[in-house]
Each structure stands twice: as structure tokens, then as C-alpha cells.
Write a structure and sequence with these properties.
Length: about 400
Amino acid sequence: MSKYANLRFEDFKRTDNTNLITTNFVRDDGGIITPDTSHNWSAKVTDMKDGKFAGTYPVTISGDDISVSSKDMTRLATGTYGFEVWEEYNGQRVIYPSAGFIQFRIHRNASDKLEPVQETVDITDVINELHKAGLNVVIDKVNILDPSSQPSVTSEIKDGKNHLIFNLPRGQQGQRGFQGPAGKAFHIQQTFPTIDAMNASKGAGFEDGDFALIASNVQDPDNAKMYVWTGEKFNYMGDLSGAQGIQGPVGPSPTMNVVSVTASAPGSQPSVTYTKRDGGYDVSYVLPRGERGDNWTEDDKKEILNETKKYVDDATKVLSIVSAGLPFCWQQRVYNTPLNNLIQEGFYYGTGLTFSNKPRDVQRSDKLKVIVLNPTGDDATQFCLVNGILWKRDNCNNSWTDWKKLGESN
């Protein structure tokens, strides 16, 4: 039980804004109650004449004293009022005094004699009174105006009814309320294997607002359900099993280790196999062999000899060697056989891929026809026909000269 004591300034005149109604509260044992300023405090005012609620007003706290200012109640009409003080925190409420009200009186001021004060009335009461009077009132609209605007009502009789439009100013912004206590950071106070085990705990070790989590297994439909303790029971908040987790750090790049390369039949499809291992993959390739290239024909031999006759000054030398029946090793080679340093006499096929020191402007995929002359067995001469152009180079003391462009075929 609590009661009030030491009430000061319980009377003031209407619109007076300088007085404080100050009191403090004592327990049954006579000890004074010191208000906790971290809690929310307010004054609830009622009209003692008719018992109607007259509003909520701020209070100030100084030591053991609690005060309500007259400046916050200038809109109240003259009369006798009573108030009680509410203390609220963590979902709890204490009302002082435990019984009755702290009464104060608002007296009429001098101007009230010239201009009567109209008491605050409820708009619903006005409408009910009008209905009782048989005016059949219909409210079409309520317009909210700026606080400084004047209120007004427009009336229109239509279809046997009185249609009203209210134009009402918005109230002045009230004073800033007391700052509430800081909220708790998110924290799972305790986990339980089942909901029954959680409820059986009866919130032991929990404070109002603490969280609990059901942690069982993924087959349990109650797994990952979160609850909050209200001070009396656990309330269900949500299921965290479908919530997306926090993204982890980027892992290291995987390594690729080639373990085998197997040749398959020409024309078959290539394939690659990845085998996962710690930190990367083992890779096995199966690649088809290339098709066998074409062999030299007599027409091929004649073609390159004819090109040699056109563009090489010493073409007669080439012809004399062939016609004289000198030992001439006709090597028939498939494409992609290395040709770079051949000094053995003969005719050869190849591609630009086979020459590391090929003639300029020759691409890796270009097809070549090559003739090698080496009548002495020491110094060789290479002729290369590619893309209709004939080139020549010589080998002297195991060193090749640069390619020389001899001419183009028509």
C-alpha cells in the first residue's frame, strides 16, 4: 500500500502556468518512496464532478518529489479534479496512491466572468444528443486543420437528413516523453531439446524479453523454433530453420591436376573426367588422334619442280640432279612431321606448325610442300611452296640462312 503526503499548491486559477502540484509517496511503514527515474512516469487526471477521464500529463521528478505543472493543464475548465501517478517498466505498472485520488482545484479567473469557459466535450456525446433531438444527423467528413486554425461546422439538409462536415484544428504537439530504458541485445538465453522441456522450466533463469531456442534434429518439426519469455510464459516468435545464414569467407581456389591424357580413334568425341579431391580435382583427358595426311604423288612432284623452274635461278641444277638419276631420297611424310632442320634430299608434306623458323606470313595451319637438295651431303638447300609462294634458304656449316622469297605462281 502507498499513500501521498506533503501535498503543495493544490489550488490555482485557470490558465495559470507557473504553479507546481508537488507531493511524495510513503509506504505503510512510513518510509518515503524514492522514484526510479529510469522508469516511465505520468499523471492520469479525472474530473471529480462526473468521473470522466481528463487526460494524461507529464510529471517531473526531483529527489523524492513528484510534480505536475499547471502550464500543462491550461485547457482544463474550472472545477475539482483528481490525479494519480503511474509508474511503468518492463511490462509492469504501479499506481500511486493505492486508493483514492490526489485532489486539486482550478478556480475561475477574472476573464472567465466576461467569456464563459466551455468545458471539453466528447464529439460522440454531441452526436448522441442531436439524435435524441430527432435531427437525424449524418457526419460526411472530418477535416483536420493546422493547430492555429479556427474550428467550424457546415450543415446541409439532404434526403431528409442533416449532413455535417467538421473542420477541426489538430492539437499542439505535446512534450517529449521520458526516454525508455535501453533494449537488450539479441541473445539466446538457453536451448531446449523439446517444447515440453522448455515449458517445464517455467522460465527459471529467464528475464522478461529473453529468447529460447528448440535445438533437437532436422527431422523434428519443432527444431529451430524460437520463443520469448514474457515474464509469465514462453511466446512463439518464429521458425529459424528456413532463415538464411551469414555468408562465410571466400575459400581458396581449387587446383587442377592432370593425371592422364589418352589417345582415341580418329573422329571420336573428346572427353574429360574430373575426380574431386581435397583442395581441387584430378583431371583425365581422352583426345582423338588426327587423320593421316595425304602422301606425295607424281603430280605433286611435277608441280613443285615446275614452280622451281619459274622462280629459281639454279632451277636447271635441280632438274639436272633429278634427270641425271643422282641418289635422291624421296621421303613421303605425313602432315605435322617435323621439317625444320631436314637436310636429307626428298619431297615432304607439312604444315606451318612443323617449322619453328618458317617463312614470314606463314600460319600454323598452312599446308607446305618442301623439297630438299643436298648433292654433296654437306650443304643443303630447302625450297618451300606455301599459298602459291616459293621460298628458298640454304644451310652452311650447320646454320640456316634467312628465307628468301623467289616468286609467286599464277
